[in-house]
């Protein structure tokens, strides 16, 4: 083989190796991050589980802060959740972790919206209204105690 052929082969192998590493890094950026779940798990302790039972009884929000027919962002045990008041005095909560790629979903009135890929969820049920999310948001247990929303 000539010296020119060896250099070309060497350059091609080096370029291919750099390309493979670059591709791996790009694909790693598309994977869910630690503490998120793309399999429909709830937020919780960074493990994709519902907030731990040790948060039961935690004061989450004032009922008056959640508009009837609307929603707000909140946290339970340090994990992001979404609170909705579909009818006066009835509050439901959902994990704020998108079931598509694990991004944090935001309250937007009668819907929840994922800023990463545009999934939209119904705030009253957590159901997917617009994909690419494959599953509804998991419900998180809350109750109303007087004028407060309580975890558990």
Automatic annotation (TrEMBL):
Species this chain originates from: Agromyces tardus
Taxonomic lineage: Bacteria, Bacillati, Actinomycetota, Actinomycetes, Micrococcales
Keyword presence, Cytoplasm: no
Entry's Gene Ontology molecular function annotations: 2 iron, 2 sulfur cluster binding; metal ion binding; monooxygenase activity; oxidoreductase activity, acting on paired donors, with incorporation or reduction of molecular oxygen
GO cellular component: membrane
Function: Iron-sulfur subunit of the cytochrome bc1 complex, an essential component of the respiratory electron transport chain required for ATP synthesis. The bc1 complex catalyzes the oxidation of menaquinol and the reduction of cytochrome c in the respiratory chain. The bc1 complex operates through a Q-cycle mechanism that couples electron transfer to generation of the proton gradient that drives ATP synthesis.
Rieske domain segment(s): 58-151
Domain of life, source organism: Bacteria
Protein name: Cytochrome bc1 complex Rieske iron-sulfur subunit
Cofactor entry: [2Fe-2S] cluster
CDD domains, sorted: Rieske
